[in-house]
UniProtKB/TrEMBL annotation:
Organism: Candidatus Nitrosocosmicus franklandianus
Domain SAM-dependent methyltransferase TRM5/TYW2-type: 25-283
GO BP, sorted A to Z: tRNA N1-guanine methylation
Catalytic function, reaction form: guanosine(37) in tRNA + S-adenosyl-L-methionine = N(1)-methylguanosine(37) in tRNA + S-adenosyl-L-homocysteine + H(+)
Name of the protein: tRNA (guanine(37)-N(1))-methyltransferase
Enzyme Commission (EC) number: 2.1.1.228
């Protein structure tokens, strides 16, 4: 589509500047989010209107002005064309997610990973999603299998959307959503030795929460889905680097672990990759 966008803009933008247009953008529900290089800022409205006119089912175009950042992992977005709104309904695998793209984290690029984990989960498991966002991973799995999930998120907007999304998808009896810091909630509540499976989808900081996650897995053991960011100049080394990092984390801990699987989830920046590792834990 970017090539197509470039074709559409040929004649409107000078050729030299057209070359600078980024090669991808996100579509979340009926909102398109595009990054525009500084040198093309004067053309942002024309780029927005061109997207609006030519992509089916898009009602709003926003420009992402900063990378995802902060505790809530938000992107700065500015309105450039169409209806001025930030709330939209996104659909995948028979699930619907109400998302506010300005006040809650959401990435359509994780959909394959959401599906992958939902296939691994077994019926009747008790699952903890420590960084649930608007509920995406938990809802995809709860729609597929009868299980119980505890969702935690510290962002109030994400937490409210998570509760709404559980209802929209008819899984509210299977998901309990809690608002607050995951560590505080888990340490103060009655969650020790409780869960069959724990998701840590906060790649920048998951390692800081590993101890609390381990303490909440069942005494008989369980699975952790551990997300990380790995810097590497060679893509083929990323899985190895990721597993090396995990080995280092576990070398300081007294539980048995076995890495079941590691893969790249997506590229997040030049030479930075998001990875996920499925780890079987046996508590001693
Ligand atoms: C990268 S997002 C992932 C959200 C969701 N799992 C998804 O994939 O759509 C990480 C989420 O963790 C939340 N978060 C960050 N620090 C947290 C903490 N200490 N306790 C609970 N939630 C936290 C953020 O608000 C954000 O929604």
């Amino acid at each position: 589509m970017s090539k197509y966008l470039k074709t559409l803009l040929r004649g409107t933008l000078p050729d030299d500047e057209l070359k600078l247009l980024y090669s991808s953008y996100d579509i979340i529900g009926d909102i398109a989010i595009i990054k525009i290089p500084e040198a093309l800022m004067n053309y942002k409205n024309i780029i927005g209107k061109t997207l609006l006119k030519n992509i089916k089912n898009i009602n709003t175009v926003l420009m992402q002005s900063n990378p995802v950042s902060g505790e809530y992992r938000l992107r700065d977005v500015d309105y450039i064309a169409g209806d001025e709104k930030y709330l939209t309904l996104y659909k995948e695998f028979g699930c619907k997610f109400l998302v506010n793209v300005a006040t809650s984290y959401f990435s359509p690029r994780l959909s394959t990973e959401r599906l992958r984990i939902s296939v691994l989960v077994k019926p009747n498991e008790l699952v903890l999603n420590m960084f649930a966002g608007v509920g995406t991973f938990s809802i995809v799995m709860a729609k597929k299998k009868p299980l119980k999930v505890i969702n935690i998120d510290s962002n109030l907007d994400a937490h409210i959307l998570d509760q709404i999304n559980s209802k929209i998808n008819g899984v509210q009896r299977h998901i309990i959503s809690l608002h607050g810091d995951a560590r505080n909630i888990l340490q103060k509540g009655n969650y020790l030795n409780n869960f069959d499976r724990i998701l840590l989808p906060l790649p920048e900081k998951a390692y800081e929460f590993l101890d609390v996650a381990l303490s909440c897995l069942k005494q008989s053991g369980g699975i952790i889905h551990f997300f990380s960011h790995v810097k590497s100049d060679a893509k083929k080394k990323v899985v190895f680097e990721s597993e090396k990092h995990i080995a280092r984390l576990f070398s300081e801990r007294t539980c048995d672990y076995q890495i079941l699987h590691t893969q790249i989830v997506r590229d997040v920046a030049p030479r930075i990759y998001q990875t996920v590792t499925d780890i079987q834990i046996n508590k001693l």
